[in-house]
């Protein structure tokens, strides 16, 4: 009986979280996504087990794990219907570079609420502060970049030094954790800077999230009301312009879909992640996906396949394919 009451409380809580008003997106010239008319309020969230294809999706994901030698955690939200589907969605995984999307959202929030002009502020760094995989910032040690340019570099090229400079605007990793808490996310946390945060093991709680938690966060900042419309448009534009995710969630969805994403890769335990907001067609309510994996012996091709195939399974499980 206690279990039944707990399930009902959990379902009620998820329904409350997922009845946030949404704004739909459309693709502009230059790759930016802008908000359209407000979408209708989504239906109450359905238990994943009640979805017709949920049992099949679970089986397919379990088989995919076994065949590729990876651990998969996934969560998807159909903002048009309120349906969700997940697999290991409450287990912790390393954030890796997926945190960069949320760091950009946090900076946009700060610029809007407490530091006007922040996005145009020029930030500089020293050669000693450069981190590996910094393809944009390594070219601008002398002149620096604006905070907006740092957001673009951190998301579209996964530039590690740019990400650290964004964290500095937030008060360090703890500042991003505080932003997670403002989104009513008690789980996601960032504890270290790039590139130390990639030093993760499955027993580690530092620098982790769960697929369900980060998917809900991503929904709030890309399709919900956590950011004003102009800031959502800017963030979505950066995500759509990302250059690192073609073999991951994007590869598992139809080519006609508009997909914005942020990847994460690295670590001894073979972390490979992707979080995405995907519009099945122009003006449609998006589907939010978070797919996290780790596999110590899996190669890059297997990791990419796990992410792409999981995206396909999730979309099919939601009835979108």
TrEMBL record:
One of its GO terms (molecular function) is beta-lactamase activity. Keywords: Antibiotic resistance, Hydrolase. It comes from the Bacteria. InterPro entries: Beta-lactam/transpept-like (IPR012338), Beta-lactam_cat (IPR045155), Beta-lactam_class-A (IPR000871), Beta-lactam_class-A_AS (IPR023650). It holds the Pfam family Beta-lactamase2. Its EC number is 3.5.2.6. Belongs to the class-A beta-lactamase family. PANTHER family: BETA-LACTAMASE (PTHR35333), BETA-LACTAMASE-TYPE TRANSPEPTIDASE FOLD CONTAINING PROTEIN (PTHR35333:SF3). This is Beta-lactamase.
């Amino acid at each position: 009986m206690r279990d039944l009451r707990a399930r009902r409380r959990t379902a009620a809580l998820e329904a409350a979280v997922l009845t946030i008003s949404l704004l739909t997106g459309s693709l502009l010239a230059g790759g930016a996504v802008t908000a359209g008319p407000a979408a209708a309020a989504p239906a109450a969230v359905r238990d994943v087990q009640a979805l017709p294809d949920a049992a099949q999706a679970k089986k397919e994901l379990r088989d995919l794990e076994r065949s590729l030698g990876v651990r998969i955690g996934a969560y998807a939200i159909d903002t048009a219907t309120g349906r969700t589907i997940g697999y290991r969605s409450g287990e912790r995984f390393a954030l890796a570079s997926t945190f960069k999307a949320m760091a950009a959202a946090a900076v946009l929030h700060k610029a809007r609420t407490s530091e006007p002009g922040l996005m145009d502020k020029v930030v500089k760094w020293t050669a000693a502060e450069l981190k590996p995989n910094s393809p944009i910032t390594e070219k601008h040690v002398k002149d620096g970049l604006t905070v907006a340019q740092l957001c673009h570099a951190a998301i579209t090229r996964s530039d590690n030094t740019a990400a650290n400079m964004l964290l500095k605007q937030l008060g360090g990793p703890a500042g991003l954790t505080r932003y997670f808490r403002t989104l009513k996310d008690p789980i996601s946390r960032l504890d270290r800077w790039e590139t130390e945060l990639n030093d993760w093991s499955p027993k580690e709680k530092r620098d982790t999230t769960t697929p369900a938690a980060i998917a809900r966060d991503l929904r709030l900042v890309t399709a919900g009301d956590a950011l004003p419309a102009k800031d959502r448009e800017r963030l979505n534009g950066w995500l759509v312009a990302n250059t690192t995710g073609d073999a991951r969630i994007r590869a598992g969805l139809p080519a006609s879909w508009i997909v914005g994403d942020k990847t994460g890769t690295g670590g001894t335990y073979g972390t490979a992640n992707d979080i995405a907001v995907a519009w099945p067609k122009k003006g449609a309510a998006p589907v939010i996906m978070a797919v996290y994996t780790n596999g110590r012996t899996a190669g890059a091709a297997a990791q990419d396949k796990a992410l792409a195939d999981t995206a396909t399974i999730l979309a099919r499980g939601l009835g979108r394919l």
